[in-house]
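Hey everyone, long-time lurker, first post.

I ran two proteins through the pipeline my lab uses and got sequence/structure pairs for each. Pasting them in order. The first:
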Amino acid sequence: EDNSADVFSQMFHERPPEKLRPVENVEVRLINHACVLIRTKDVSLLIDPLISYGPGVQCAHSPKYSEIPQDLDFILITHNHPDHVVLETLLELRHRGATIVLPRHNSTAVFDPSLISVFDEINCKKCISVEPLDVVRTASVRITALPFLGEHGDLAITSKTGYVVEVENKRIAFLADSNNLDHRLYDRLKCIASQPDLLFIGMECEGAPTSWLYG
């Protein structure tokens, strides 16, 4: 039996979503896959947004869009793979006021498309691009871009970055699917990213297949 009409109707509601309860300190919530929500009383950030349509193997509880703050301060994107840049989710979130932080692409490589151009096509206007060790800060949060090695078949792709988010005296690191190709890199980053309170890393053994984006 085709229930697509029922599924579609569930996406519409007569009442606006209720306001999220306030938080006192730092709330860090794993939403789905690599998607993490950070909230304090002053700031909210969403990393690699992915809101699924229903419960699945990734999460026992699948969050709804109403559980994401209506006024987001930042959306952080780690790299251009379809489980980290999910257009269906971004279309829903594009009007929530967030500044979107994107890794800067390799402008000389046709296989490294500009994420800012992609986001502009879906009417996300508040985008900035960062390179490793760039810092984005406000009065409430400090975001530092980290080098991201591995993935993408080791092609000359630069549109990938990790992040360290420092908020309310907490340090949270997001390294996504990066690979420790040389421990000396991390030795040099200790002054920036040492001893995080939370560390989020991917668990793929060799990264995504090249055929995902490059044929």
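...and the second, right after it:
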Amino acid sequence: LFRQGLSLVLDFSHLSFDEKMSYIRKLLPLAAKYRRDRGYPHSILIDESHYFLNEEIEGDMLDPELGSYILVTYRPSMLPDKVIRNVGVLVATRITDSKEVDAISGFKDPDSADNWYAILANLETTEAVLLPPTEEACGKPIRFSVVPRLTKHVRHRSKYFENRLRSDQAFVYTKHGFAVGQPVYTLHELA
């Protein structure tokens, strides 16, 4: 996994939640150790980080002293304070849930709280905002336009189509209220 000069994307979408957690609990401390010892990987991006970095996060999963983490989440309220407090750059797209705004509010000037809610709730889909503690924000939200996508957005199409369901979630064909045939565990099988 850790070779200088390579970029690597790990797709956990076909793993169960427990398998994802087990893997990430092994991988993140190892990546931090490599970064501390060798200087790479340069950046570690964790998408849907709220699933992996919760209150039970072990102390060595992230090494905040090293930086280099890019956390992507639509639920900052689920991240522990110790993770939020180590954020160096904060970029947000539209947020309408005040609970989620409150989760990142530790960075804001109390006098501008209402302004944050208004700005975040009224962003267009083509906009984002650079927020404090980001140094370049100079203590105030900076609204900007996002460059249009270069590729077509295909949201989790295969993730949900191929992901195997637990046995208690399987599709079951019935006739007059009685199960017939074998249960179906993926949308692909159902199709």
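Reply from user beta_strand_b:
Welcome! Quick read of the second one: The mean pLDDT is 83. Strands lie at 44-46, 69-71, 90-92, 127-131, 142-145, 174-175, 178-179.
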